[in-house]
Amino acid sequence: MAAQRKASADREPADAEATQAGKPSRTAGPKASRRPKRTGASAPDGSASDGIAVAARRRAITDPRDLHAAAALIVAHNQARRIAATVRAARSIPGVDLVLVVDDGSGDNTQELARKAGAVVIRHSHHRGKSASVETGASVIAMRDEPGRTPRAILLLPGGLGHHAVGAAPLVPAVVEQVADLAVAVTEHDDRALSTSGKLARRAVEHFSGWAPHDPLGPIRCITREAFEAAVPLARGAGLEVAMTLDALRSGFTVTEVECDIRHRPGGSSPRAAAKRAAQYRDVMVAVSSRRVRSEVTGARVAVSQRLRGSKEEDA
Question: pLDDT of 41-67, one tens digit each?
Fold first, then answer.
C-alpha cells in the first residue's frame, strides 16, 4: 500500500547567490498539522496497491554515490532575465550533479546565458510546451546516466525561479534516500486559497487514494526514474502535475509533500491571467477525466478476468 510521508531536510547552499536565498526551513510554508501524515492509495480495481512489488522494482543502493544522484531539469522559454540565477542555484543544491536546461524555442538569449552559468542546454527549434520539454530533458538525462548505477532522480524546476531555486533542496534527499518516489514542494506562497483547478485536482487525488494533497498542482517536484516512466506520456499543459501524481499512485509508488522555502510570484487578475486560468482548468479536467476512464476500464478488465477465472474453477 502506498503511504504518504512528510520529509524535510536542511542543506547548506554552496555559492554566494544561493546563500542569499537562505537555507530551506523545516517550518517554512504551512504548518505541519495541515499536512497529511500517512495515507494509502487503492488500485483501480479496488484492491490495495502492491507496495512490495514497487519496492522490488527499486534498485538496491550499493554505491554511496547513488545517494547523491539527482539531475535538475529546468524548462525555460524566454527566461533570459532569471535563467542564469536559476542554474547557479540549482547547481548549489546538494545531491544535484547535473543541471539540464531545455530551451523551449526562446526568442532571446536564454540558451547562451544558461550555458555560461554551467548548465547542459538542449534547445527546441520552436515552442513545444512544458510536457514535451520535460520528456525531452528526461530522455537526455537517461542517456547521461552511468550503466550499472541507479538512474538519477529528476528535480523539476521552473526557469523563472531565480536564486529561490535553492529552496527546493529538501526534495532531493526525500527521493534519493527512498523516503518517497515523488516529492512535491509546498511553498511559502501556497498559503493562498486553491484555485478552481487546484480544487478539482485535489478531489481527483483524494477520490483515488484517500489523501488530500495541499498543493496538487505544485510544479516544483522531484521524482525517481521508475515513477517518471509510469507517468509517460505526460499529460499536456497544466494537467501535467496532477496526472503525474495520479499515475504514480496508480502504479503503487509513494508520494509526499515537503515544505520548501521558495517564494512564488502571485498570479495576476488581468484578462490575460483569467484566460490562463481557464486554459489551466481545461487541461486539468482533460488529465483527470482521461485517467478516470483508464481506471474504470482497468477495473472492468480485472472484474471480467476474475469472473472468468471463477467460472473455470467451478467447472473444474
Answer: 434 444 334 433 344 345 555 555 555
In the predicted model, what is the mean pLDDT of the chain? 79
Residue 75: partners with Cβ closer than 8 Å, 6 or more residues away:
101, 102, 104, 130, 133, 134, 137, 156, 158, 159
Whether residue 105 contacts residue 78, with contact meaning beta carbons closer than 8 Å, is answered with no
Burial 80-95 (b: 16+ CB within 10 A, else e): bebbbbbbbbbbbbbb
Contact 219, 74 (CB under 8 A): no
Residue with cell 472468468: 308
Give residue 193's pLDDT band: very low, low, confident or very high (50, 70, 90): confident
**CA–CA separation, 172 and 174 (whole Å):** 5
3-state secondary structure of 96: strand
- How far, in Å, CA of 212 to CA of 204, rounded? 9
In the numeric block, which cell numbers belong to residue 83? 535563467
Which residues pair with residue 25 across a beta bridge?
none
C-alpha cell recorded at residue 71:
539531475
Q: How far apart are CA 145 and CA 55, in angstroms?
A: 21
CA angle 69, 113, 264 (to 5 degrees): 70
Longest dimension (CA), the chain: 74
Which residue pairs from 80-84 have beta carbons closer than 8 angstroms and sit at least 24 positions apart in sequence? 80/106, 80/108, 80/109, 80/110, 80/113, 82/159, 82/160, 82/161, 82/162, 83/110, 83/113, 83/114, 83/117, 83/159, 84/113, 84/114, 84/116, 84/117
- What the block records as the C-alpha cell of 117 is 552559468
